[in-house]
Amino acid sequence: MPFAAYPLAFGVQQAFEGIVWLGVAGGSEATIAIAGRGFLFFSHLFWLTWVPLSVWMIETVPTRRRAVGVLTLLGLLYGLSVSLPSLLIGDWLDIILVNRSLEYSTTLIYDGYVGRFALRMVYAALVVGALLLSSDRRIRVFGALVCASLVVTYAFFAYAFISVWCFFAAVLSVYLVVIVVRDSRPAVGIAG
Question: How many other CB atoms are there within 10 angstroms of residue 182's CB atom?
């Protein structure tokens, strides 16, 4: 069930981005600011915590479960450190249009100390790492797909990395719908 929430959460996140687009089209700074922070909540905090937590909730192998538990705690702490300032301080989030895509330009407490590429790698290690640590092959496949989408996004859409990678991940969450539907079907037995 924790993975069944992914498409819904991505849907809400993408709805926030749709509202940002409406704010851009209508020139409404207030709409952009509010909806942008809604999107940012998901991209910078929710996924960093929910992905490892969802793996932890289904993991049955004790060593993997402990490792994913550590990633869950680290994801929560890292997520709070990268999201709270931009959520609470008005000018720490600037959303700009770049090549017909949205760039969520955030000021981070790490600025001047750690480069953005390194921060993105920490994010990827927490999210993708949790998926790849799962003992469930289907979740590892999903992790590999998310990792591939990260590479494609960074290679071709680095100018709007957050927005585009979240979009790809939302599309990939359909894979999880297939898993959930298959797992929820009753087993068909042969009557004797």
Answer: 9
Token pair belonging to 156: 């071709």
Q: Is the pTM of this model over 0.85?
A: yes
pLDDT given at position 101: 87
Residue with tokens 């996140």: 13
Confidence of residue 189 (pLDDT cuts 50, 70, 90): low
Q: Which helix (H) or strand (E) holds 44?
A: none
Produce one character per residue of 133-154: b if its CB has 16 or more CB atoms within 10 Å, e if not: bbebeebeebbebbbebbeebe
Q: Is 136 strand, coil or helix?
A: coil
Cα–Cα distance between 38 and 17 in angstroms, integer?
8
CA 64 to CA 70: how far, in whole Å?
Answer: 10
Residue 187 DSSP code: P
Tell me 192's DSSP state.
-
Question: CA 170, CA 161: separation in Å to the nearest integer?
Answer: 14
* Helices and strands per DSSP (H, E), number in the chain: 7, 2
How many Cα neighbours within 13 Å face the side chain of 98?
Answer: 15
Q: What pLDDT sits at residue 192?
A: 43
DSSP letter string over 2-27? TTTHHHHHHHHHHHHHHHHHHHHHHT
